[in-house]
Amino acid sequence: MTEDVQKHSVHTLVFRSLKRTHDMFVSDHAKSVAQDDESFKIKMGVKLKTEYGAVLHMPVLKEGKDRVSQHPALMQSQQSYTQPGDDPEYIITGTHPYPSGPGVALTAETKLHRNPSEAGVHSVALALPPSQARQDANRTAASVVDIHRHVGGAERSGALSLMEGGGTRNSLVRKAPTMPKPQWHPPWKLFRVISGHLGWVRSIAVEPGNQWFVTGSADRTIKIWDLASGKLKLSLTGHISTVRGVAVSNRSPYLFSCGEDKQVKCWDLEYNKVIRHYHGHLSAVYDVDLHPTIDVLVTCSRDATARVWDIRTKANVHTLTGHTNTVATVRCQAAEPQIITGSHDSTIRLWDLIAGKTRATLTNHKKSVRSIVLHPTQYTFASGSADNIKQWMFPDGNFIQNLSGHNAIINTLAVNSDGVLVSGADNGTIHLWDWRTGYNFQRIHAAVQPGSLDSESGIFACMFDHSESRLITAEADKTIKVYKEDDSATEESHPINWKPEILKRKRY
């Protein structure tokens, strides 16, 4: 005859198990874990370094000097006291056993029990009472020396003897790294939205006189806008596919454009007509830039090359090969290296313009490098990728620091001489950074144009005008947005929310 087992709910069974566990261990509940001597010794050594490292330069008692300057093995066996007659301000600490330093447990190995001689007691009695301040100073110095004698005395005796011999302790102490405080920048706010293009706005350039700016779009047109009023001045047609790059010359009245139709065009702005074509790219041309001091044009393409053109003769001076994927961005400067390219193969190359060869290849990025910006006054540049923004030093491309936090595909970067770095991303977010410290002081996500989808909020290009008081962005909602600094903002109304932390700059 089988007996029915009473069924309990899971809750009841768990509770009973918990109670059994409690009854099993209740007797050990208040017991502390047994102390491990080795761990305790390591802990005391660490405490000593961190808490007393800063006071090692303090004056050491004559008694302490005598002890430390001798061999550590002799220190343990030395039982004689310095006679009080040698130092009239010597303090008797009593005749009971006492530990050799603060925080040291009183054991057979650590206790000290030394009795001063009768002559010493008599001479000290005659010299009493010394000042309380002197007693405190002596006690402090003696206890520090005692701690050093007890924990790692052998490794420190050399340092202390060096200090006594007239050497400085500062040469042994390494200064802790610090995070510099970021400079305060006023926040930027949306000032104007310009509509007119019928497709994504892919590129921007501002003319040297700061009177107007030009945009290239996926509607295959190039439009010229008045910078002050935002009104349309001129539309140029001629490309048969998306216009991906525009550049205005500061040496001649020319505008250069490139597009996904593999064409690179030179427009004469006095006649508003194309006067030259530069043929050679085998695929879509993604960016164009002009050399600041010589009549040279550099373009980069999906055919994994960058090409250097003579503006006047249309000759292909150099074809810069080496990248293994689309070259997305190119920048020129007067100093070496004169050409810098960023590619979807996640590398940045610095080029020797004269030889037409690579000077250096920077492989630190893990994702496609879609944007490069040169600092207007410093000999540095920044590159933007989906992993993070990196800052580099010319001429060899030495890594400076990472700017992490803009977790999106970064399409564009801009920087002004005030040290404000702007990064625009594919998801429509704009982050503003302090160039020197990498502090992200503002994040903007402007609303899309009415009638557009929320998914159409991408930033394809951004640029400061030449006065650096306006920031112009080209966006996926077919608009051009203009931002300006908030004049009413102060350091009190918009404080820097900055917390210094352990130096987190990576080595690559």
How would you characterize the overall build of this protein?
This protein is an alpha+beta fold and 508 residues long. It has helices spanning 10-25, 37-52, 62-69, 72-77, 118-127, 132-150, 153-164; strands at residues 188-195, 201-206, 212-217, 221-226, 232-237, 243-248, 254-259, 264-268, 273-277, 285-290, 296-301, 305-310, 316-321, 327-332, 339-343, 348-352, 357-362, 369-374, 380-385, 389-393, 398-403, 410-415, 420-425, 430-434, 439-444, 459-464, 470-475, 479-485. The strands form seven sheets. The chain has a four-stranded antiparallel beta sheet with strand order 1-28-27-26, with no helix packed on it. The chain has a four-stranded antiparallel beta sheet with strand order 2-3-4-5, with no helix packed on it. A four-stranded antiparallel beta sheet has the order 6-7-8-9, with no helix packed on it. Helix 3 packs parallel to helix 6 (132-150) and helix 6 (132-150) crosses helix 7 (153-164). The longest helix has 19 residues, at 132-150. The model is unreliable at 71-95 and 152-171 (pLDDT under 50).
Provide the low-confidence segments as ranges.
71-95, 152-171
Number of strands: 28
SS content category? alpha+beta
Strand order in space, largest sheet: 1-28-27-26
Strand content: 25-35%
Largest sheet: 4 strands, antiparallel
Backbone CA Rg:
37 Å
Tell me, briefly, the overall form: elongated
| Average pLDDT rating | 82
The number of helical segments is: 7
CA(first)-CA(last) distance:
77 Å
In terms of quaternary structure, the protein is single chain
Helix content: 10-25%
